[in-house]
Amino acid sequence: MDTQHYAQEIVKELEGSVSGLNAGEGEALTELLLRAGQIFVAGAGRSGLMGRAFAMRLMQAGRTAYVVGETVTPGIGPGDVLVLGSGSGETKGLVSMAEKAKVIGAAVVLVTIQPDSTLGRLADYTVKLPGAPKERPDGGYTTLQPMASLFEQTLLVFYDAVILRIMEQTGQTSGRMFGKHANLE
């Protein structure tokens, strides 16, 4: 199979995954983010990269958003929201973050394949994404793509859909958001 055919197969998998999104969970997350004081976003590996993209769009849409671990990220507090992206819901560093955020009084959101996970049990809000896990229990795979690529792609599409809802509800446009685009590049 050549790269064009692989790309077409990836799009088919992504279409199947996105068709399983729960609109109610997305709406609940949108409403929570609109009410939040500050929004903190975290994830490990490629899920973390999708989270960084989400935090950037949140900022451009007028929300106060930070990426956990950056030197300019302030402390989280009551009324704030921590959004975690984790396919497994078991990433140890994210579990520690969630525990600390809850003690402080912030809301914890988990976007995951596994809502019945350690992070899922800690989270105040859970969004289940229909991505494929890295590996099936029998050692086989449920996706053509390597590792958790389908989850990570679905995560980015879901995050962008939340941004579109925030834009719609706040009267944002791409043109207005471009005013907050980085200009020192």
Write a compact overview of the structure shown.
This protein has 185 residues and is α/β, with parallel strands linked by helices. The protein contains seven helices and five strands; from the N terminus they run H-H-E-H-E-E-H-E-H-E-H-H. It is 49% helix and 12% strand.
Description:
Keywords: Isomerase. Its EC number is 5.3.1.27. InterPro entries: PHI/rmpB, SIS_dom, SIS_dom_sf. It comes from Paenibacillus rhizoplanae. With about 180 residues, the chain is α/β, with parallel strands linked by helices. The protein has a single domain, classed as Rossmann fold. About 50% of the residues lie in helices and about 10% in strands. Strand 4, helix 5 and strand 5 form a beta-alpha-beta unit.
* CATH topology label: Rossmann fold
The CATH homologous superfamily is called: Glucose-6-phosphate isomerase like protein, domain 1
Radius of gyration, Cα only, in angstroms?
A: 17 Å
Given the structure, what is the number of helices?
7
**Strands in their spatial order, largest beta sheet:** 2-1-3-4-5
* Morphology: globular
Helix content bin: 40-55%
Bin the strand percentage: 5-15%
Q: Tell me the name of the CATH class.
A: Alpha Beta
Total beta-strand segments: 5
Average the pLDDT over all residues and give the rounded result. Answer: 88
CATH architecture: 3-Layer(aba) Sandwich
